[in-house]
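Page 42, continued from yesterday. The earlier attempt failed because a stray header line got pasted into the input along with the sequence. Redoing it now with the clean sequence only.
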Amino acid sequence: MSITPAHDQAVLRNARHTQLEQAVADNHRQLFDLNAKALGGTVHSAEGLTYTYTRSNGSAVTFPSMTEEAAGAALDAMMDYYRTQQADNVGYWSLDPPSPANIGASLLARGFQPGWQPCWMALDLGTMHTDYTVPDNVQILADNHTSVNRIKDLPYAGNGGALSDALFQAYPERVQRFIAFREGAVIGQCCLFFTTGPDGIAGMYNVGVIPSAQRQGIGKALVVAACRFAAERGYQYVMLNANHMGRPVYEQVGFQFIGYGCTWWLIGWRYITHAATPDMVNLAEAAGKGDLGILERLGTAFTPEELDRPLANGMTLMQVAAHLHQPAAAEWLINHGVACTALDAWDLGWKDRAADILATHPGEADRRYFDWRGTLLHIAAQRDDIALAQLALDAGTDLSIQDKDHDATPLGWAHYFNRPAIIALIKKYMDNN
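This time it went through. Structure tokens are written below.
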């Protein structure tokens, strides 16, 4: 498909929110597919499920729309393929709600981990805030030729971002990179990926500035330059996925929140080395869907130890039930000898039971959760759950405990995620103790 700079080209116009969500999904899907092909990878489609594989740049499952009846077999075929390729980094992307609605249970049962929520934002270019100038000594250029691969500390440099160098070479008409220079040195970048037709938009990706140049308005300058370029090419909408730190910058330009998405991630090789049996997959799906009939039919053949054994994603059946808010399934597991932690109880809405667990089990407040080994207070900071933070503090949690991935205390997490209320709670607790 050729992208031409014509103001009357067929692109999305005067869209409703649902159309914008479909447009951003289509933009991501086409980008992931072309990026995989440009890198010498593969793209597979069957039963409403499209997934890519690349050895060097991760793989993606791109906004499927499957029926309940077809989902299990399609996912099993996909998992078999990823096992043969020994894929170790697969992202499953979906709009919210996904299709089918309970796909999360099927993915967790097969080894995927819960992911983060994409935050879709859209800018109607006719409403863009244009009263902005580029910072002194900074030059913003539309530049598809300068390599940014070796720029130290530049976010999304090389093939680590959504748009690889191979994509720029193979499909130059579909992409445009913007680079921020200061005294000839690259200090930031931003990329656009174009789709046309009824869902045609300019998707914005790889927005990043080196640490020493951040908080100087350079990221905003890159975003404005890219948006002006898209407007010149006849687009009405630019859309992106914002993180919590970047969202205020986009809002200053005029981007508006559209909706959230869903992601799940297949990371590492445990889904290969610890592949679940079909019965355990069905049991985990039942825990996530609250299907007591299947739990009773299959679960009674397992010992309590087997029912409490981590799945390929590191989660237990209880954690699956709690994550997907299935209290009846959780009660079935408890009645069959499975332990319930304070976090499990909290996530199931059993606030009093969570407090009782912390009160009656010394050390439970310092239990380490997930592969990254965070405490309840780490998790509260991540979620911005003030009530959970207070519960952990009331239980006397150890504030010096650091997580495994970032070597940070709960207070460090609260600062990173900009959780002022939780920061204040922790500091008050420290002052009183």
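Notes: The domain at 122-257 is CATH 3.40.630.30 (Aminopeptidase).
Reminder to self: strip header lines before submitting.
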